[in-house]
Design a protein that fits this description.
transmembrane; transmembrane helix; membrane; mainly alpha; DUF3180; 4 helices; Putative secreted protein
Length: 154
């Protein structure tokens, strides 16, 4: 599996942010405030990804990845890698959406009371989603294994 390209994540986030800003400009009246549970979920996923990344990285550095009971199963590490990749892409897409929405609301906050009132929740959702993307990248990179040496077989 290939590494998640950081440029691809950034480009996706920027594209979605531009789309969200245009969408919010046109349909702001249909969007409600961001519930407080949204940033909390993003923080929870980021914390889980960070914790798993630290654990997998320490096991990998100690040479404790294998099929023994005391070791981390390689299939489990591969599953964590997929979780990290999913968190990274989800964070980039959702973070881009909330960043675009926050950009529109920041521009309108001086004369639109609802935009000013909802801005902290939208900004928190954007920041925590981007943090989730970062934690997902960290987990994905922590789950990488070096290529086999010349004498080893796959």
């Amino acid at each position: 599996m290939k590494k998640t390209p950081l440029g691809g994540l950034a480009a996706t986030g920027v594209f979605v942010a531009l789309f969200a800003a245009i969408f919010t400009w046109r349909f702001y009246h249909l969007q409600g405030p961001v519930p407080p549970v949204v940033p909390a979920v993003f923080v929870g996923v980021a914390v889980i990804c960070g914790y798993l990344g630290v654990k997998v990285k320490s096991r990998r550095e100690e040479g404790r990845i294998g099929l023994d009971r005391s070791q981390l199963n390689p299939v489990t590490a591969a599953q964590f890698l997929v979780v990290g990749k999913a968190a990274a892409w989800t964070g980039a897409i959702v973070g881009g959406y909330y960043a675009g929405r926050a950009a529109y609301q920041l521009a309108q906050a001086s004369w639109l009371a609802s935009a000013a009132d909802e801005l902290p929740g939208v900004a928190a959702a954007a920041a925590t989603a981007i943090a989730m993307a970062g934690a997902g990248i960290y987990l994905e990179r922590a789950c990488e294994v070096p290529p086999p040496t010349e004498g080893e077989t796959r």
